[in-house]
Design a protein that fits this description.
Length: 319
């Protein structure tokens, strides 16, 4: 069984397990898993461009566009269906990325990273100074319906349907990205990271490849933003678009590593666990604990958390 098929089977098993354990888990664990998967989608998108040697410090832009796309669809258009709201978030992020992607494809290194940050903060300024868009208070989003069905447990936002929807979208997106990264276009990204001049000599379009990767990354971030807003029921500029949110996604991406499409979700789950317990037991120094966690990972696991699994698999294959 090749690596791609093995990953696909593991994702399918993970989906079944995630859905199967829902009835026996306490509400706060279900909420944390759902939040980890939603944020993991954004980190999965970052992984796509990081494979090509690019890092974005402003992916909160697309996370926020996804969140606001869903929220504005609910508030102004009166749409309550969760699937349509998520689709609106994806479309909003995808449309902006399809325009900005051609500009971003011209830049590399710190210029690429900071230009993304600049656009993210530009959107933040527009949202904060616009009363029509909720200003700093943002919007509240009603409990969503599902093809006309409103769950009886409307008092709890994280119903089994919403939880299942997030699990399916997360695993489906990971499967898609896995197939993409194992395709010719996916491998071109790694070649761009090593030597993009040679990629051009071989006849491949570097700009075209980066635009596609950027668009995929933005769509995943928009999906994650829309799902997060449906989970928490509220959206604000500071929680979605502000630079600290983008930094958080980069934090998790470094923590996770880029070795496998499952890594972003594992890293996101670890991040949520550390943050939850740090806030509970050390609320005054929780940021320091997160920083110390990242420092330890960089020092001892430069390939991220996934390198532990990769090393274990390598050793088992040698024995």
């Amino acid at each position: 069984m090749n690596n791609r098929n093995l990953t696909a089977w593991c994702l399918a098993i993970a989906l079944v397990l995630l859905l199967g354990v829902h009835p026996v888990l306490p509400g706060w664990v279900v909420n944390m898993i759902a939040m980890s998967l939603s944020n993991g989608l954004v980190v999965l998108g970052l992984m796509v461009i990081m494979r090509a040697g690019l890092v974005s410090f402003g992916h909160g832009l697309y996370f926020g566009l996804g969140g606001y796309g869903a929220a504005l669809g609910s508030v102004f258009l009166g749409i309550s269906d969760a699937f349509v709201l998520v689709l609106l978030g994806i479309v909003a992020a995808g449309l902006v990325a399809s325009v900005l992607g051609f500009m971003m494809a011209r830049y590399r290194g710190i210029f690429f990273a900071l230009l993304n940050l600049a656009f993210s903060m530009l959107l933040f300024g527009v949202l904060v100074n616009s009363a029509v868009l909720g200003s700093t208070d943002g919007f509240s989003v009603t409990v969503p319906s599902y093809f006309g069905y409103v769950p009886s447990s409307a008092g709890s936002r994280v119903t089994f349907i919403l939880y299942g929807m997030i699990c399916v979208l997360a695993c489906g997106s990971a499967l898609f990205v896995n197939r993409y990264l194992k395709s010719t276009m996916g491998y071109i990204g790694e070649a761009i990271r090593e030597n993009e001049v040679r990629v051009g000599y071989l006849g491949a379009s570097v700009k075209h490849a980066i635009v596609i990767k950027y668009l995929i990354s933005a769509v995943l971030a928009g999906m994650g933003g829309a799902l997060t807003v449906l989970l928490i029921g509220h959206v604000t500029p500071e929680d979605t678009v502000y630079w600290t949110r983008s930094g958080e996604f980069v934090f998790v991406a470094i923590l996770s590593g880029t070795g496998n499409v499952a890594a972003p979700f594992l890293g996101s789950a670890m991040f949520e666990l550390v943050r939850t317990y740090a806030l509970q037991y050390a609320p005054d120094v929780w940021q320091m604990l997160l920083g110390a966690t990242l420092l330890l990972v960089i020092m001892f696991l430069p390939g991220g958390i996934w390198s532990l699994i990769a090393n274990a698999n390598r050793k088992s294959a040698q024995t």
